[in-house]
Amino acid sequence: MSIASSRRTNQTTSQRKISSMCQHQPPCPTADSADREAAHLVAHHPEQGWSLLCNGVLLFEDTGELLPDGQVIAPHRVLGTPHVATAA
């Protein structure tokens, strides 16, 4: 493969659009919408700590996310108040 054809391949690959896996009616929220986690599950692997949604979002057990465009959403667990017992 020549350098020129290698460059064309890289440019084509980086410009590809990610098609939606969602075939639901009404369609599930897109990966860039605020309610993206409401999309339907395509694959669920709790033993590995991740799930794939039909909008292409990877959800992780720690509540982190990986969006189809490669953007990382940091874990956003809701922290509960600790129960503190006091001695009388």
TrEMBL record:
Lineage, opening ranks: Bacteria, Bacillati, Actinomycetota, Actinomycetes, Kitasatosporales
Organism for this UniProt entry: Streptomyces rimosus subsp. rimosus
User: Which region ranges are annotated with the description Disordered?
Assistant: 1-32
Enumerate composition-biased segments (Polar residues): 1-23
* InterPro entries assigned to the protein according to its UniProt record, in alphabetical order: DUF5999
| The protein, known as | Uncharacterized protein
